[in-house]
Amino acid sequence: MTWAMHITLAPTWFDPAETGALLTPYLCLRALHDALVKPMPDGPMAPCLATRWHESADGLTYDFELRQGVTFHNGDPFTAEDVQFSFERYKGAGAAELKKQVKAIEIVHPHHIRFVLHDPWPDFLTFYATPATAAGWIVPKTYTEKIGNDAFKNQPVGLGPYRFVSYTPGIELVLEAYPDYWRKTPAVQRLVFKSVPEPATRLAMLKQREADVTYAIYSTLGEDVQRDPNLKLEPTLAGIQWGCFVDMYDPKSPWHDQRVRLAANHAINRQAINESETLGYSKLVGGIIPATYDFALPFEPYAYDPTKAKALLKEAGYAKGFDAGDYSCDAVYASVIESVVNDLGAIGIRAKVQPLERAAIQGAQREKKVKNLTFMGSGAPGNAATRIEAFMYSKGVQSFLKDPEIDQWFEQQSRERTRTTREGLLHKIQQKVYDDASFMPIWQLGFLCVTGPRVAVSGLGLIPDYIYSAPYEDVRLKA
After folding, report:
1. In a domain, 27, yes or no
2. Which end of the chain has fewer surrounding CB within 10 Å, N or C?
């Protein structure tokens, strides 16, 4: 079964240790690796490598009973040592918060591990047992220590339904079924993920039966799919996407002025972009946290009002507009950002689209190497606190905000066990971000996926709120 991928796969996505607060790496992680607990068709926190878990009455300890008789792809047995090792080497999204909160990891016996916290932390399971982070995704201790972290990315070994066969940079990843996978033997023997950044080529591959599933088919190509009886359009509602004002804390930058940020928000005709790019399947939003997340405070989208936008610019001293520099983005969404940039240009904010491959843009954002404007997004599960930690808390891996008040409220809520008090603090953060126009929200993406005529089960939609094919062991081709 072949996927024509909308992105170029990166080896960093073969190793859970560096996972950001994003959904993209799980394209690979869900095939190669497994977690103690993860979203599955039967629930958002389904038992996987952990068969059960228990929180102590005082909220200070969490015990996980581990599945027995499970082996890694190289034959190594899975034990509590691998869980401890995977947590300690994890350095992706949420790592700082997790390691600040966890006092000790105790191996009770080879199939029982205990996490001990410094203080009660209501979000421990949200951070550890959902893909808000990948800290609970397990790699083999003995093998990884032997070959080293860099080599592991090129020869990954995991506990997932498929094992690594080969990776050709920029071309394809090939995987084969692992017959001893604990849940079930996968139905399809071989998975091939081909990197095909050009959407018209991806669609042609489906029509010619050179691929079976593809992602991110937008605009007129999506309309083409709707007319083809041999293809099936399977839209899923993905994560929220937004723009960041990277230089907003520089007093010399126009983005330092809240009126300018607000003007940019009022300049964008989000509904017109929705209809032209995603056939109306996207959902317009006013914030970066999905309304379905626990503790979310929903906001109406900033209204499209170019007259108001121009007035705000004039009031801020930019009656003739200004040069905003590059607007960096994932190349997949360059046409979306082109539309946004056109709308900004209409009120005098002149920017230039700078498309980059997904791994490159994510790396540049994580390392804080982007400037001016940058386009971000996340489909990672969690709640309002996990999204705030990653993108609003100043110490977050992918945050460009540096607001002491937000940091204080976030740290206060992380220790708060009274739900209403905690909710109030998280709502304060979200309200402040909205009032300050700290982001430029676009939408909750209507992700347009397409399946070809050979597919019996694509995996799309099997796991609620997950936009890609999964679980891979459940996908099927027609007989």
Report:
1. no
2. C
